[in-house]
Amino acid sequence: MFLQEHFRRCPSLWGVEPVIFQCRYELADFRDDDFATLHVHRPQRLTQACRKRRAEYLAGRYAAKRVLEHLGYPWMQVGSDEDRVPVWPRRLKGSISHTNHEAVCAAFEGGSAGASVGVDVERYLCSSKLDSVRELVVTRSERGLIANNAIDESWALTLFFSAKESLFKALYPQTRAAFDFREAEITVLNQSTKTFTIRLRTSVHVRFPKGWTALGRYFDDAGHLTTLVVL
Ligand SMILES: CC(C)(COP(=O)(O)OP(=O)(O)OC[C@H]1O[C@@H](n2cnc3c(N)ncnc32)[C@H](O)[C@@H]1OP(=O)(O)O)[C@@H](O)C(=O)NCCC(=O)NCCS
What we know:
By secondary structure, the chain is an alpha+beta fold. It has helices at 34-37, 51-70, 127-136, 140-148, 153-175; strands at residues 2-8, 19-25, 79-80, 86-87, 92-98, 102-109, 117-123, 184-190, 195-200, 213-221, 224-230. The two termini are 33 Å apart. The longest helix is centred in the C-terminal third of the chain and has 23 residues, at 153-175. The protein is globular. It has a five-stranded antiparallel beta sheet with strand order 7-11-10-9-8. A four-stranded antiparallel beta sheet has the order 1-2-6-5, with helices on one face. Coenzyme A binds at residues 57, 60, 80, 83-86, 96-98, 120, 164-165, 167-169, 172-173, 179, 181, 183-184.
């Protein structure tokens, strides 16, 4: 099923070096037998899901399995709770993302009590989606960041959208609080180190007040972009 797969090197962010595994797959090649072949548990609820969802779930959990093996937990599987939040072995923090062509998992062991990671992979936005993302996702100061640094807008919108999804996935397991895309904004974007800083514009939780910031990293690949946020 998988066309390409690899571990990504991720330089430290705030002292955390997550293990990242990414794989590319072809939806047309997916077979339900792949769960057994790849030793990935298929939850009962997935029986009702469409083929695309089953394939994406498998790809995400396969990436998670490879990360768990790398971290020394070859016998563990990642479940999901009632909010769809992935459930990791006790000492691990991790996150999963998938499209219908790519899957990625990032996780690390240890870290402080509040440490966490969020990961997201996105295909580059097509021109028909730019207006809605500009409207729903991007703040005025982010528009300034794009204009002042002459950054390609469609690339930047994909990055900002993905970075905010990653932030949400890192925060939500700790806060259980929903928040809007425009409640966070990219304040620094460094294209030489491929890192960014993302700041909350409103208070999301007592531990994550207005002005609180996190660091992120991005990886450019042909056709898609992957972001990672570490708390
Ligand atoms: C939850 C959400 C992040 C999931 O994204 P998605 O479009 O399904 O796409 P992805 O493939 O990137 O991520 C899916 C994976 O994220 C994980 N996930 C789902 N909900 C999650 C949550 N609340 N917290 C953390 N991780 C979550 C799961 O592992 C899921 O895969 P699985 O169901 O196969 O286990 C997104 O749809 C969402 O609801 N976003 C909320 C709005 C938002 O991001 N606001 C931005 C705030 S700045």
